[in-house]
Every structure is written in C-alpha cells, then in structure tokens.
Amino acid sequence: MRDSAGSFAVMDDVWRDSLRQREIPIRLRLPQHASTPVPLIVFSHGLGGSLASGSFWLDHWAAQGFATLNVQHPGSDLNIWSRRRDSGELNLRERLHAAMQPHELQQRTLDVKFVLDELHVRQASTPTLQPLDLNRIAMSGHSYGAVTTLALCGQHYPHLPAFAASSAPSTLFESRFKAALVFSPSARHTAQLDEQFGQITLPCFCLTGTHDQIRIAPDITPDNRQLPFRHMRGNNKAMLVLAGADHLFFNGRSRQDSAAECGMSAFKEVDNSVDAALIPVVQETTLGFWLDTIGHAQPMHNAIRWGFIGTHISPPHQLTLSV
Question: Does the keyword Transferase apply (predicted)?
Fold first, then answer.
C-alpha cells in the first residue's frame, strides 16, 4: 500500500437522514485502481468547519491507499459564520454556544452512525462504493470533531446529566470503529477523568501542540489537550505534541482558506514556516498509525508498538522521539 502515492477520486454528495429530517453533506476520497479492498477513515470537522476540513491529512491518506469520508454536521458547521457580518458578534457568540451543547454532540454522533449505515445500504447497488472494506473503518476528527470521535469510541460523561445515565454512553458508542485518531482533543470538564476516558480501549492516537488553544474556550489550555490521552487505560495509545503547533494548524487547511470560510480577512501571528515544517511530520506519523491499525487484512486491536510519543519540533525543526 505504501510503495508510491496513487491517485484518488473525490465525490461530494448530500445524504438525507429521513428519520431526523437532516441533510448530511459528505465527501468521499476513493483510491483508484486498488487491487484489494480499501479501508475507510471517517473524519469529523471542528466547530464551524466543512467538508474541506482536514484536507492536508485526508489527501495524504487517500494518496497512500486509504478511503476517507468527511462528514459535515448541520448546526455546528460553516453556516455558523455565514451571518457573522449581518447579525453581529453577540449573535455569533450565541450560535457558538448553542453549537457546543450536549444535544449537538449527540446529533454529531448520530450523523456518523447514519453515514455508516448508509454506506452499507448503498454499497450493494453502487459500483463506486464496492471497493470499500467496511470491516476496516476508523474514526478521526479535529477539535469538536475530536470530541465527537472520542464520544463514538467510548468516552463517558459523568459530569453531564443528559449523558450520565448508565445507558447513555452506549447510545453514543459505535462498535464498528477499529481505531481512532484525534487532532486537538480536550477535557472540557476535568472531574472524574479516569471515568470519562478510561473506557476508550481501541487504538487511539492523540495529536496536539504547545500553542493549541482558542479564544472561545480559554479553559482548554495546551496542557488540557493532553488529558484524554493521559487518562485512557492501557498502552494501546500514543500522543504527539508538536512545539509551535497551534489549534488552526491541526485543522489541516491553509490559513488563508480557513480565514475566508469564516469571513475573516486574515489571522494574526501567522507563521507559515512552522506549518510547512510540521505538515509532513503529521502526515507521516498519522499514516504510520493507520498502516499499523486498519492497514492490514485483519484490524490490529493491539497495534501501537511505540508507546508514548513526545515529539517536539523546534528550530531547526529537528525531530526527537521519546519512546
């Protein structure tokens, strides 16, 4: 699978969940001329994101033989920004707050479950979907998408009344995923962390940076983003911490494109040289994780052989691994 970068087709569509009366935009990258069934990585965007989120990562994975599927979540997608200039900053803050409520998180998990179900239904009658190996599916996401990913992969919520009941986590959990990779994860509530993250047992790779923080959530510090990893049980996990990497970097798009999407002319303190140095590091380490987990005919449930990874990039951008 890794010998050379290959071509892939990109297909956009909107799938309708009639049960919830909800339109779900999707973007599928499908490697061309695959000689064996193709594993699939589902990707969930962050707050205010879109089908373009994660492109730096998903393009690379698809070129190396993995199908990828972006899921766009109505209610917490780019449409949050569309009324920024018309409705004012206060309305925008209200929209951001509403999009981060437990109900929206639940809707996000249901979006993903619906897409998985729909893939199984459509594959039988759609030739372009038949190369997909739906027994080898993994989940990934950035920021709010990382929260969505961990919810689907076993996180518990003792601090949220809506999810505190013993049956609630099982309604969010999705057993079809064989591995998870999260960019900019977080622990919004820092009580009972072992209970929150201790039930996540599938292979999980967490990526964050020393500048991974955003203004709308000042309580989520760069150190906070390491907490999910630290409170997962067992050794079937890994973490990558990149010196100099900020929150927007892990969105996997150019800063100019991200700025345009949310109606901003530019971001302050942009250092594209840091991004240029770190992008290939993330592409290669994440690809290695996928190869070790779903890149085999039989998914490997104890695949992470490298243990804890503390990777720090600093001038002149030398890579140091601590195993």
Answer: no
